[in-house]
Write a structure and sequence with these properties.
The chain is mainly α. The chain has four domains: 87 residues; 65 residues, no CATH class; 46 residues, Orthogonal Bundle (Arc Repressor Mutant, subunit A), CATH 1.10.10; 74 residues, Winged helix-like DNA-binding domain superfamily/Winged helix DNA-binding domain (Arc Repressor Mutant, subunit A), CATH 1.10.10. The chain is built from 16 helices and two strands. A hairpin with a 5-residue loop joins strand 1 and strand 2. This is RNA polymerase sigma factor RpoD. Keywords: Coiled coil, Cytoplasm, DNA-binding, Sigma factor, Transcription, Transcription regulation. One of its GO terms (biological process) is DNA-templated transcription initiation.
Length: 340
């Protein structure tokens, strides 16, 4: 109905704007055309008074008639009169305002219900005021959907919507890793059962004991317990002054520890000293063959090319150098670093 009225009002508004542009309503335009078609003295007076000639006025009249016919077609098609339709829509809008006022009264009357339900979900990752806000959104949805003709009490119906809104908010917002709503319900049941069993046993219950009490499979209880574990931020403050973060106390496995760094530095120094006891050529051959320095070992042929000697000659120089390095006077300096 509102859509029909909107279409009619659009046509009516176009007519009004056109009449305002001409400076006369349609009846006045038609009367002016009638006078201009005659031979009376009024014709000359009207010509001087008007800023439009007869042809202009006839065009204006035709356009207004076209818009009026469009309104008539809409009224005929929808079988409704414009004035009656305006009254019907006005009554509908009045009813909607009354309905909104009644809804607001229902919401205000049930705010305490929201608070009482929200209290059951504290310490779940959302602030109490956030829980109330989410509960209020569930209450508003309950007010919109409630049908008194089905015979249910509103408080019973609203409780379901409030709980659903709160549990969904906890699932979506309270955790770094989102947990489905059905899993949140299972976590709540397992948590309640764990608290009861702690009071009964005086200790933390096992997953098997929780499963027996809930009549759940043990595997399900274990998966629920795993899902309930909260991730901890590495930026979490540690200490009374909050001057350190948790990340400051976690080992970085990608970086060598200080003692390993020191040991490698000492080994490097000892290798340098031991190699310095060889001849210059022997030292360079060993360095090239084992990649000492740049980390890239060379083949006999590559080393031979560098020294402009044969592969066999390089092998002989290398063998002689290694025999020297295996001498106790040199090897004992490196034995302490074998495990590095």
């Amino acid at each position: 109905i509102k859509g029909i009225l909107k279409r009619l009002e659009k046509q009516k508004k176009q007519i009004e704007e056109f009449e305002k542009f001409v400076g006369m309503n349609h009846d006045q335009i038609k009367e002016a055309i009638k006078v201009l078609n005659g031979r009376s003295k009024e014709k000359q007076k009207l010509k001087k008074k008007l800023k439009w000639n007869k042809e202009n006025l006839e065009d204006f009249s035709d356009k207004i008639k076209s818009l009026e016919r469009a309104c008539g077609r809409i009224e005929k098609k929808e079988n409704v009169d414009y004035e009656k339709l305006k009254k019907i829509v006005a009554d509908i809008r009045l009813g909607e305002r009354e309905s909104e006022r009644a809804k607001q009264e229902m919401i205000e009357a049930n705010v305490r219900l929201v608070i009482s339900i929200a209290k059951r979900y504290t310490n779940r990752g959302l602030e109490f005021l956030d829980l109330i806000q989410e509960g209020n959104s569930g209450l508003m949805r309950a007010v919109d959907k409630f049908d008194y003709r089905k015979g249910y009490k509103f408080s019973t119906y609203a409780t379901w919507w409030i709980r659903q809104a709160i549990t969904r908010a906890i699932a979506d917002q309270a955790r770094t890793i989102r947990v489905p709503v059905h899993m949140i319900e299972a976590i709540n049941k397992v948590s309640r059962t764990q608290r009861k069993l702690i009071q009964e046993f005086g200790r933390e219950p096992t997953p098997e004991e929780v499963a027996r009490r809930l009549d759940y499979p043990v595997g399900k209880v274990k998966s629920v317990m795993k899902a309930s574990m909260e991730p901890i931020s590495l930026d979490r403050p540690i200490g009374e002054d909050d001057d350190s973060n948790l990340s400051d106390f976690i080992e970085d496995t990608t970086v060598s520890s200080p003692d390993q760094t020191a040991a490698h530095s000492m080994l490097k120094d000892q290798v340098q000293k031991v190699l310095a006891t060889l001849t210059k050529r022997e030292e360079k051959v060993v360095r090239l063959r084992f990649g000492l320095g740049d980390g890239t070992p060379r083949t006999l042929e590559e080393v031979g090319t560098i020294f402009n000697v044969t592969r066999e000659r390089v092998r002989q120089i290398e063998a002689k150098a290694l025999r020297k390095l295996m001498h106790p006077s040199r090897s004992r300096k490196l034995k302490g670093y074998i495990d590095i």
